[in-house]
Amino acid sequence: MGKTIKIIYGSSTGNTRRAAEAIAAKLGGEVINVAEAGPDDFKADLLILGTSTWGCGELQDDWQNALPMLESADLSGTPVALFGLGDSVGFSDTFVNGMAEIADKAVAAGGRLIGKWSSETYSHTGSTAEENGFFVGLALDEDNEPGETDGRINQWCARLADEL
């Protein structure tokens, strides 16, 4: 792509890390664990942010500590793409809610969201990351639909390349 791409993720079980690495394999870029991120890590030509959602819609723990860095970043005009992991069956009403919290902070910091993803094929009943039939970013469900992950990542990465 010829641009500086940073993929910052928070992962408790390794699923979000693996998704971040798969995205990096498709697009290139640097993969950064948010627990080890510094303020300069939020500077890129394309910023991709990933999180899992826990409990009843809570953001992954490491992101809680990193949100102040995201809030204070100058993302003016920076394309920001999001990906989130969740359980669309067990936590059907809060599926990938963590992604929405990060999206709100990125937009408040001046980021321009890209990479919306259709919510049509998921079995969830609600999500704060969904609006008008689309999630704010790529939604993955390793608990119930692990066989869909690679194809979804491939399609989403191609879409991001087109949107840039």
Uncertain ranges: none
The fourth-level CATH homologous superfamily is: Flavodoxin domain
**DSSP strand count:** 10
Order of helices and strands: EHEEEHEHEEEEEH
Count of discrete alpha- or pi-helical segments spanning 4 or more residues? 4
Shape: globular
Question: Mean of the pLDDT scores?
Answer: 95
How many separate domains make up the residues? 1
> In percent, how helical is the residue content?
25-40%
Q: Distance between termini?
A: 9 Å
Radius of gyration, whole Å: 14 Å
- By CATH, the topology is Rossmann fold
Which structural category fits the helices and strands? alpha/beta
Please give the CATH architecture.
3-Layer(aba) Sandwich
Strand content: 15-25%
Specify the biggest β-sheet: 7 strands, mixed
Question: Could you explain the architecture of this structure?
Answer:
The chain is of the alpha/beta class. The chain contains four helices and ten strands. The chain has a single domain, classed as Flavodoxin domain (Rossmann fold). Helix 3 (97-108) links the parallel strand 5 (79-85) and strand 6.
List the helices and strands and how they pair.
Layout: E1 5-9, H1 15-27, E2 30-33, E3 46-54, E4 58-59, H2 61-72, E5 79-85, H3 97-108, E6 112-114, E7 117-118, E8 130-131, E9 134-135, E10 138-140, H4 149-163
Parallel strand pairs: 1-2, 1-3, 3-5, 5-6, 5-10
Antiparallel strand pairs: 3-4, 7-9, 8-9
Looking at this protein, list some descriptive labels:
164 residues, alpha/beta, Rossmann fold, seven-stranded mixed sheet, three-stranded antiparallel sheet, 4 helices, globular
